[in-house]
Design brief:
The complex is a heterodimer of chains A (324) and B (292). Chain A is an all-alpha fold and 324 residues long. Chain A contains 15 helices and two strands. Chain A has a domain of 206 residues. The chains are: A mainly alpha (324), B mainly alpha (292).
Chain lengths: 324, 292
């Protein structure tokens, strides 16, 4: 970017995309003021938290080609670490937050070093087993963790008690995470991750330390998932073993696949579709998860690139000259 | 832990471990064969187990016959297995990641459909009078029905073993586990063999579910998912693709669940997951993996 001035740089920018992005930003920033209800604002906060979780998952699945069925381990770990430190040990929020991030990084290292010994389907199974192990441990250690009933009454710090503040905090965290991940996937490291996804043997043959790059992806993805879990726990002032369960892994898969794996916008779109439709459907249809199951199956079979990917394909097929 | 450890207690725990192992074997053997032959990790297998249990219960309530319930459960599993393979898995052969993602979706759909029909709560499985009796083994009571499950599991293992080892289908399946393309090149319609194995695997899992209903005395929508974790552990320990491995793994996991579960109730599954992690780290292909 060194050689061109600001005007030329602006001219180079993709105008329609810039306009779309600004419209989205205005919409996101202004939504609480036009929100039809308190509940609608809550749904959108939930969308932001789940979008963060889905983006962190997509760094593994979409970019690195690591199919982890244990990603919810980090989500639950973040929530439980903050909840236990604040409620049981009486830590202040900032200290608990910092500790939870450190725990997530350490857990990412341990998880990665163990699980990366195996590949493909075995990796999926091992990671599933790790997450289940964590869920079982939380359920059995009920004297500390509250067991299957979960841990209610997390002392959320006062400044987050206001819904409007929480909304902007969640939005800001999502935006920062999006920016960070965008920097990461467009960096040389991100290129190597994609190379590993496309052809691991070749990436290794060129001389890249495949294990180290996969470990980086797991640590970064795991830490961001933990942040999502922390936000989730603080928002509901509650953590439950469900945050470590297979259902929460299925959730993130649904959002990522429906939106479009291998992109950062896809998981955000997927989280929006799944959570907003879920909120609408659940008031009308009793077994609305069935609808999602069917949509998910149809997308996996017929639109493997998700909504975003399929839209891009359609746009590419448009004749030249239109749009521009 | 107050009761003294006696020989009859140990025998009883051993038999209970065998019964649990039998249930695990019924679900794990299909999982293992399907993976060995087609490299499909079928996450919907647990759904077939649950459907077997519910169909078995419905037929049992309608007819009052437990054998008929077992047969109907297995038949439902076979039919669902056929639909899954032909309608859903087949279009995605060659793309393992999407097959796994697809089976996960099918699991969700199967589970939701089940709750649409029978509701989300526990339903008790009223077993017939003869199945409620106990027999005495070394002075300890042992439920007759558990003995039935044991015999059933033994018979199924023997049947699968004979089919794989002695029949033409078995030869083709074993060759297919080794190299499916080569088998096809030799003039075998491997696609049809895939369907047959999926149907058989589905029938076994659903039979396991139908047999598990009277064992737990209740059926519930998550029962399959709960057994599936144990089944995963079994196939990883035994080696994906090996029926003998599934049998040995099932017994190991069933026995450790029974013994550890009795002496340290909190540790049963944790020990098994630990066992699996150990096998994966030392011998990732499993103890009885087909030679590679």
């Amino acid at each position: 970017m060194g050689g061109i001035g600001p005007v030329a740089a602006f001219a180079r920018l993709n105008r329609p995309r810039l306009g779309g992005g600004m419209a989205l930003a205005v919409l996101a920033l202004g939504f609480p003021w036009v929100s039809p209800s308190y509940y609608a604002t809550s749904v959108v906060i939930d969308v932001y938290v789940m979008a963060l979780y889905a983006m962190s998952f997509d760094l593994l699945m979409g970019y690195t080609g690591l199919l982890s069925f244990g990603h919810t381990l980090f989500f639950g770990l973040g929530g439980y670490t903050v909840a236990l430190l604040m409620k049981r040990a009486g830590w202040v929020f900032a200290a608990a937050l910092a500790a939870a991030v450190v725990v997530a990084v350490l857990a990412g290292v341990a998880f990665g070093v163990l699980a990366l010994r195996v590949r493909g389907v075995y990796f999926a199974m091992v990671t599933l087993a790790f997450a289940e192990l964590a869920r079982l441990a939380v359920e059995k250690l009920s004297r500390i963790t509250g067991g299957a009933d979960g841990l209610p009454g997390i002392p959320t710090p006062a400044f987050l008690n206001h819904r409007l503040t929480f909304y902007y905090v969640a939005l800001a965290v999502l935006a920062v995470a999006f920016w960070l991940l965008r920097r990461l996937v467009n960096s040389p490291i991100g290129r190597v991750l994609v190379a590993i996804r496309e052809n691991e043997a070749r990436a290794a043959a060129i001389g890249y330390n495949v294990f180290a790059y996969k470990l980086i992806a797991i640590i970064v993805g795991g830490t961001l998932a933990a942040v999502a879990g922390i936000l989730h726990a603080l928002f509901f002032a509650y953590v439950s073993p469900g945050s470590l369960g297979i259902d929460n892994t299925i959730n993130v898969l649904l959002m990522t696949i429906i939106g479009g794996a291998g992109t950062l916008v896809g998981p955000i779109l997927g989280a929006t579709v799944v959570r907003v439709m879920g909120a609408v459907l659940s008031t009308h249809v009793e077994r609305w998860v069935l609808v999602f199951g069917l949509v998910y199956v149809a997308i996996v079979m017929f639109m493997p690139q998700g909504l975003l990917g399929s839209w891009r394909v359609v746009r590419l097929r448009e004749p030249e000259g239109r749009g521009g | 832990m107050g009761a003294p450890v006696t020989i009859p207690l140990l025998v009883n725990l051993f038999l209970n471990g065998l019964v649990l192992g039998t249930l695990f074997f019924l679900i794990a053997s299909g999982l293992s064969l399907i993976f060995g032959l087609m490299s499909v990790l079928n996450l919907a297998h647990a759904g077939l187990f649950t459907w077997g249990a519910y169909v078995g219960l419905a037929v049992f309530n309608a007819t009052g016959s437990l054998p008929l319930a077992l047969v109907a459960g297995a038949a439902a599993g076979a039919a669902l297995g056929a639909v899954m393979e032909v309608g859903f898995i087949r279009p995605l052969y060659g793309n393992h990641t999407f097959q796994i993602l697809l089976t996960l979706g099918l699991f969700l759909v199967l589970n939701e459909l089940l709750q649409l029909v029978w509701g989300p709560s526990l339903i008790s499985f009223g077993v017939p009078a003869w199945a409620r009796t106990t027999i005495s083994i070394l002075g300890m009571p042992f439920a007759t029905y558990r003995l039935v499950v044991l015999l059933l599991g033994g018979a199924v293992f023997a049947a699968v073993y004979v089919i794989l080892g002695r029949s033409r289908l078995g030869i083709v399946v074993r060759a297919g586990v080794g190299n499916a393309e080569m088998v096809q090149a030799l003039g075998v319609n491997i696609q049809r063999v895939f369907t047959v194995v999926f149907v058989l695997g589905g029938a076994l899992a659903a039979l396991g579910g139908a047999a598990a209903g009277p064992f737990f005395r209740v059926v519930w929508p998550q029962m399959g998912a709960e057994v599936q974790l144990a089944a995963f552990i079994v196939v990883v320990i035994g080696g994906l693709g090996s029926v003998t491995g599934s049998a040995v793994g099932s017994l190991l996991v069933g026995l450790s669940q029974a013994f550890v579960g009795y002496f340290f109730p909190a540790g049963a599954l944790i020990v098994n997951v630990g066992l699996m992690a150990l096998v994966l780290l030392i011998r990732p292909q499993g103890l009885f993996a087909p030679g590679r």
